[in-house]
Amino acid sequence: MANLLGEDGVLEARVADRGSSQSGMRAYNERLVLTLVRRHGALAKADIARLTRLSAQTVSVIMRSLEQDGLLERGEPQRGRVGQPSVPMSLAADGAFFFGVKIGRRSADLVLMDFVGAVRGSLHETFSWPSVGGILDFIGRGVATLSAALPADRLPRIAGIGVATPFELWNWAKEVGAPIGAMDEWRHVDLAADIGAILPFPVYLENDATAACGAELVFGRGAEFADFLYLFLGAFIGGGVVLDHALYPGRSGNAGAIGTMPVPGPDRRPVQLIDAASVVILERMLRAQGIDPSPLWRGPEGWAGFGETLDRWIAESAKSIAFAVVAACSVIDFSAAIIDGGFPAEVRDRLVAAVECEMNAMDLQGIEPPQIVAGAVGPDARAIGGASLPLFRRFLLDRSVLFKEHANA
């Protein structure tokens, strides 16, 4: 691990932006190679040279170094018509590991992800509302538990933890039924610093819906659509925006905050989308019917038996989501709206079909309707999105740079 193992024993991709120094340029090129290999699955040296316009010798040096560092591995030689057989190189699954945590209003999830994006282990915990102490305890215990499943020689390859959390958690106290003042502690906490104090590796923070959108872009259906609106239904609905194959954060990092979009309420007066199409709405509907809603937060497998109440929630949510999608598409010509959430795949598919049906019944003159499709990452999208934060920030190039490089190849 000559150029990637830091003094503290933690993987450190010493990669700067493209610069004038020789070391900076090589570091940039290493990230570029890793990014292209991740995107294509496997590439031979000749393919890398063609895509990057680097010399064959430079590519050989970089790929040999990355192989020695355990980040790339050789595939079976591929024989062509003439010349020596090419050897495809792919990411080594054990090259690095990343933790991702999702902090929700009703539950928390922790995942351990490897270098190719496979989840090696996960933990889930429910609560009535999140407390700082409870979240820190869950992360500390969870990281110790999932780390214990790795061989000892792989522990130094843990490269960081990404935290996907709603911004301004204290503003959601009323909606989750927390006592007055119970969530005020979130106003003053430095979450990244507090997590960093109990863990020996870097901490990265992102909005939970934005992180989920990033997971869909990288590990889900992102390759199918250049531009898409992403909607994730957790306790409250949120979303993200992808433009030209890259996550678009906006001026304040809050682009795609679809939950705040006004939609017609039951009396036709406007309400925010979070008050019309969120899982907490289903929770309230179930309570009103005398049905225990706690299975909603235990995991997606616990949604069986909600019957007519679930049917009604899907129908009402679909109307509001369809309205929001059409409104968004009147501003940006999205090719798709991708819908996912913390629910079973069967519920997701029913919701997608209902949204599509509602859109077909709307007046869409002047708007090219987007495809309405189901997300591919699933309930763990926020935690997986969190885990992808250290992956991209420490080893890969910004996705927009990748596509500019690819377009120029």
Describe this structure in words.
The structure is a single chain. This protein is an alpha/beta fold. It has 3 domains: 70 residues, Winged helix-like DNA-binding domain superfamily/Winged helix DNA-binding domain (Arc Repressor Mutant, subunit A); 128 residues, Nucleotidyltransferase, domain 5; 156 residues, ATPase, nucleotide binding domain (Nucleotidyltransferase, domain 5). 39% of the residues lie in helices and 18% in strands. It has 13 helices and 14 strands. The strands form 4 sheets. The chain has a 5-stranded mixed β-sheet. Helix 11 links the parallel strand 13 and strand 14. Helix 4 packs parallel to helix 6 and helix 7 crosses helix 12. The longest helix is centred in the last third of the chain and has 23 residues. The N terminus and C terminus are likely disordered.
Describe the protein's topology.
Layout: H1 22-40, H2 45-52, H3 56-68, E1 72-74, E2 89-91, E3 97-103, E4 107-114, E5 119-126, H4 132-147, E6 158-165, H5 173-176, H6 191-198, E7 203-207, H7 208-219, E8 228-233, E9 237-243, E10 246-247, E11 262-264, E12 270-272, H8 279-288, H9 295-298, H10 307-329, E13 336-341, H11 345-360, E14 371-374, H12 381-395, H13 399-408
Parallel strand pairs: 3-6, 6-7, 8-13, 13-14
Antiparallel strand pairs: 1-2, 3-4, 4-5, 8-9, 9-10, 11-12
